[in-house]
Amino acid sequence: MAEAQLRMIWVGLGALTLAMLFMSDAAKWLIEYPEAWVLPITPWLNAAMDWTVAVFGPAFKAFSAVMDIPMSAVREFLQWLPWSVTLVLLTFVAYAVSGASLAIFTFLAVLYMVVIGYWPESMNSLSLVAISVPMAVGIGFGLGALAFFSDRAGRLIKPVMDLLQTVPAFAYLLPILLLFGFGPVVGLIASILYAFPPTVRNTMLGLRRVPDEVIEAGLMSGATMRQLFWRVRVPSAMRQILLGVNQTTMAAFSMVIIASIIGGTADIGWEVLSTMRKAQFGESLLAGIVIALMAMVMDRITAAAAIAEPKEPILNEPLWSRYRMWLIAGGLALFTAALAQVFPALSAYPRAWEIFPAQYLNDAVTFVVVEYSDAINTIKSVAFFFIMLPVKIGLNETVSPFTWGFEFTTPLRIGYAAIAAAVILWVARSKGSGAGVAVFFAAMLIYFGLTRMPWPAIVAVAALLSWQLAGPKLAIGTALSLMFLVVSGVWPQAMLSVYLCGIAVLLSFALGATLGILASEFDGVSKVLRPINDTLQTMPLFVILIPFLMIFKIGEFTALLAIMAYAIVPAIRYTEHGLRSVPAYVIEAATCIGCTRMQRLWRVKLPLALPVMMLGLNQTIMYGIAMLVIAALVGTNGLGQQVYIGLGDGDFGVGIVAGLGMAIIAIIADRLTAAWSKGRQEELGLEAE
Question: Could you report how far apart the first and last alpha carbons of the chain are, in Å?
Answer without folding.
Answer: 27
